[in-house]
């Protein structure tokens, strides 16, 4: 009986300790904003811009910033939603809307920073009009970027899309295809690597830069920044917008210093959106 009492007491004590630790941990996760703000980012240009802020502006503003690079951008929203990182910087509004809808998540934009113009590139022709009948064009295979790629081709007269097509367009939504173009759907990061195997490829701006392509010079056709909905922004899980660290970073990311950094470093291949 005495042994049973000792065991029971020990179990209750351990349970109380566990609950106490859990409560402390939960409180810290929910309210402690004293540590560094960890921001997930694609390497180029997002992490480069964040590292400029970290190295040149953050200390004066009292911001402890940690930049965590993700080469696979599809991992950044899950990390933000589960709290592994405090924010991310890689995506545009149509992409985020699609992600939240499909995953039941509640990530929200904070401030738009820049646009990476989507471009059509080729190692085989020098002008888009030179693409031959039956040419193969690589396009990103995720919902929003594929639609964006097709809209780029349509805006430059290579195809015509069906009326009313939105951000979920696929090759099946092409109404007219005078060159009988064929489409190869690839992960966005693979499109620049496909240029030796296809006639042309539509490449996201960040992957173009990483592959030593200069969008402002090398693209056969390039997105216009005018009224463009695809600006990239800082994003957080809903409820974290008022985190003082997030507010400080938002302010710094839209500062004159960052605008000048973008202009000087990317020479038109990345465009400030503020």
Automatic annotation (TrEMBL):
Signal peptide span = 1-25
One of its Pfam families is Lipoprotein_9
* An example Gene Ontology CC term for this record: membrane
Topology relative to the membrane = Lipid-anchor
Lipidation (S-diacylglycerol cysteine) occurs at: 24
PROSITE patterns referenced in this protein's UniProt entry, alphabetically: PROKAR_LIPOPROTEIN
Q: Which InterPro entries match?
A: Lipoprotein_NlpA
Tell where it localizes: Membrane
Q: Which UniProt keywords apply?
A: Lipoprotein, Membrane, Palmitate, Signal
Q: Which family does it belong to?
A: Belongs to the nlpA lipoprotein family.
According to UniProt, the name of this protein is Lipoprotein
Its organism's taxonomic lineage begins at: Bacteria, Bacillati, Actinomycetota, Actinomycetes, Kitasatosporales
């Amino acid at each position: 009986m005495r042994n049973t009492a000792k065991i029971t007491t020990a179990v209750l004590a351990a349970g109380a300790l566990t609950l106490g630790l859990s409560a402390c941990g939960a409180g810290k996760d929910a309210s402690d904003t004293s540590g560094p703000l960890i921001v997930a980012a694609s390497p180029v240009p997002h992490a480069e811009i964040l590292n400029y802020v970290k190295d040149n502006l953050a200390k004066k503003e009292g911001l402890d910033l940690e930049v965590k690079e993700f080469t696979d951008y599809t991992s950044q929203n899950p990390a933000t939603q589960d709290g592994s990182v405090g924010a991310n910087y890689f995506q545009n509004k149509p992409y985020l809307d699609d992600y939240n809808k499909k995953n039941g998540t509640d990530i929200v934009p904070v401030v738009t920073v820049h646009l990476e113009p989507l471009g059509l590139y080729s190692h085989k022709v020098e002008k888009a009009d030179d693409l031959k009948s039956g040419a193969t064009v690589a396009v990103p295979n995720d919902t929003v970027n594929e639609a964006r790629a097709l809209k780029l081709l349509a805006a430059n007269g290579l195809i015509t899309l069906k009326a009313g097509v939105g951000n979920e367009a696929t090759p099946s939504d092409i109404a007219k295809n005078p060159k009988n173009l064929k489409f190869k759907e690839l992960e966005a990061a693979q499109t620049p690597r496909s240029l030796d195997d296809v006639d042309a490829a539509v490449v996201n701006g960040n992957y173009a830069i990483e592959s030593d392509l200069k969008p402002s010079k090398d693209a056969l056709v390039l997105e216009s920044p005018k009224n463009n909905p695809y600006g990239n922004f800082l994003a957080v899980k809903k409820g974290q917008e008022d985190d003082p660290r997030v507010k400080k970073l938002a302010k710094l990311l839209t500062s004159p210093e960052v605008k000048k950094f973008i202009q000087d470093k990317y020479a038109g291949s990345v465009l400030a959106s503020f």
